[in-house]
Amino acid sequence: MTQAPPAGRPHDPRFSSGPCTKRPGWTLSVLDGAWLGRSHRAAGGKAKLAEVIARSRAILGLPADYRLGIVPASDTGAVEMALWSLLGPRGVDVLAWESFGRGWATDVVKHLRLDDVRVIEADYGALPDLARVDPQRDVVFTWNGTTSGVCVPDGEWIAAERAGLTICDATSAVFAMALPWDKLDVITWSWQKALGGEAAHGMLALSPRAVARLESHTPAWPLPKIFRLTRNGRLNEAIFEGATINTPSMLCVEDALDGLRWAEEIGGLPALIARSQANLKAVAEWVAARPWVDFLARDPATRSCTSICLRIVDPWFEALDAGTQAAVAKRIAALLDEAGAGYDLGAYRDAPPGLRIWGGPTVETADIEALLPWLDWAYARVRAERDAA
């Protein structure tokens, strides 16, 4: 007999891991003050861009001597700018335990073609051996593995007295996790993650050590215009004061400002972190009572509170071949979508078959709690369909 669907649904069924759901109460009217039809280089446009930088800096508690700027092409653009502009003078360690980290490793090895590169890897669900990172070398890593739900637990493995730079893709961590700024020399993120902003714009934070590298190192390869952070051998300070390299969307800027103001209103970074942790807690309590599902992250200390990735551990499922497992997971996600109970819940295409729930601070815990019974329903229905076939 087919299990009846749950009685209620999430108020907001958007659980995509990027672009992520808007903050509670968001409406199109928040964009009414956007600087439209005017140059972003005019005083008003530059003021809006500078406000994004200032509010982001204040909420995050970024050190006063760190530069923060808005750059093209989302988090990807920010990471690529850092890799192409900063790497070369030292050997590089690249940490890879999920799709995006492996993408950065491909860039460093196959495209920059650096001679002295160590790729330190782990399978989905685990972290690589962080003790292998050499403080004499640069290190490139994601703070939070968006496609695996595995994050580094802290910055204790990063040497305070290091010679190399730490280049951190933190796009699924910023505004949702506490970051040790003094251990990070380059930090990147996008507006479309924790605060639910719109795509195409990235944020790039640089420590004084990273600035010194930029001003003392000339890459052996040509840099496209949108990657150039220096001018005549000195940091282009204008980028970090609201003068963007290329034309930004001022609608996206206004939306980013709305998310930042909301963050301030609810209590700043501590409140944002608490909201994400509450979402993870709700899922963890549900998982603990379910024999068919578990976290993809094997170590509880490394479980992400934003990209919450789940794997199916029912012996029935594990006995299926890989193709059928993938089909089952996709069918579960499709049923949830069709029922209006949860959108975009499928695992990332390169990850093991499973489910992924965005638990960032714009997601209400009540919506997570309303979603979870639907996961039980969808799994039971798919298994019944398979058993009947």
Please outline what is shown here.
The chain is 35% helix and 15% strand. With 389 residues, the chain is α/β, with parallel strands linked by helices. α5 packs across α6, α6 (268-288) packs parallel to α9 and α8 packs across α9.
- Average the pLDDT over all residues and give the rounded result: 97
Instruction: Give the C-level CATH assignment of the largest domain.
Output: Alpha Beta
What is the assigned CATH homologous superfamily of the largest domain?
Type I PLP-dependent aspartate aminotransferase-like (Major domain)
Helix/strand order: HEHEHEEEEEEEHEEHHEEHHEH
Radius of gyration: 22 Å
Report how far apart the termini are: 14 Å
Kindly report the spatial arrangement of strands forming the biggest sheet: 1-9-8-7-4-2-3
